[in-house]
Backbone:
């Protein structure tokens, strides 16, 4: 297994179905419960573990997941409310070293609870037309709402796997 891609690369079906969307939303809905089960009782030493040399710590990963979901949620909302808006990339490495990433992970888990609840609520009401709406990412080009929902689910699972690898060392 490649620890950089512990669950594999994101795979979005060519034709996304409502069943796909429901499965991804179910993962997103239960994510913070599973994240809490993994990190709630960790010591500072455990929160400082990494999954590979030079990687982010468990603490940084939890904060990154919240930062990323926040950015992706905003992109999702923009795609649903504007015509093919262009959205900026965010420098994940610079975000990961800001002072707020030294806070307890609880603040990011609470943030994730709210963001994920809103993503799930929004996702359950999407139409075919809305799933095909797009935004233009500065670096990655045009992305559909359907693909963004897939990434929202995949990204959280991807980093939960990184956390579990770090804790197993």
Residues:
């Amino acid at each position: 297994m490649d620890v950089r891609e512990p669950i594999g690369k994101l795979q979005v079906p060519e034709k996304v179905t409502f069943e796909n969307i429901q499965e991804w939303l179910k993962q997103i809905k239960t994510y913070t419960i599973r994240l809490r089960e993994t990190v709630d009782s960790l010591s500072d030493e455990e929160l400082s573990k990494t999954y590979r040399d030079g990687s982010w710590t468990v603490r940084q990963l939890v904060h990154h997941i919240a930062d990323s979901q926040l950015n992706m949620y905003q992109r999702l909302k923009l795609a649903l409310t504007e015509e093919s808006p262009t959205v900026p990339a965010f420098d994940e490495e610079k975000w990961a070293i800001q002072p707020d990433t030294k806070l307890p992970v609880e603040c990011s888990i609470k943030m994730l609870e709210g963001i994920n609840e809103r993503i799930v609520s929004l996702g359950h009401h999407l139409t075919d037309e809305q799933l095909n709406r797009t935004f233009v990412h500065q670096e990655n080009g045009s992305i559909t709402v359907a693909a963004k929902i897939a990434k929202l689910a995949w990204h959280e699972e991807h980093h939960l796997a990184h956390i579990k690898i770090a804790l197993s060392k």
Q: What stands out?
A: The chain has seven helices and three strands. The longest strand covers residues 134-137.
